[in-house]
Amino acid sequence: MSDVDALATEDLLRARMYRFLARLLSAPPDEAMLKSLSEMDGDDTGLGKAMLSFANIASKINQEQAEEEYHDLFIGVARGELLPYGSYYLTGFLHEKPLSKLRNDMAQLGIASDASHKEPEDHIASLMDMMAGLITGEFGEPAPLAGQKAFFEAHIASWASHFFADLEGAKSSVLYAAIGTIGRSFMEIEATAFSMS
Amino acid sequence: MKQKCDNAIADRRSFLKLAGAGAVTGGAVLVGGKGAAEASTTADGTGRHYKETDHIKTYYELARY
Question: What is the ipTM of this complex?
Answer without folding.
Answer: 0.72
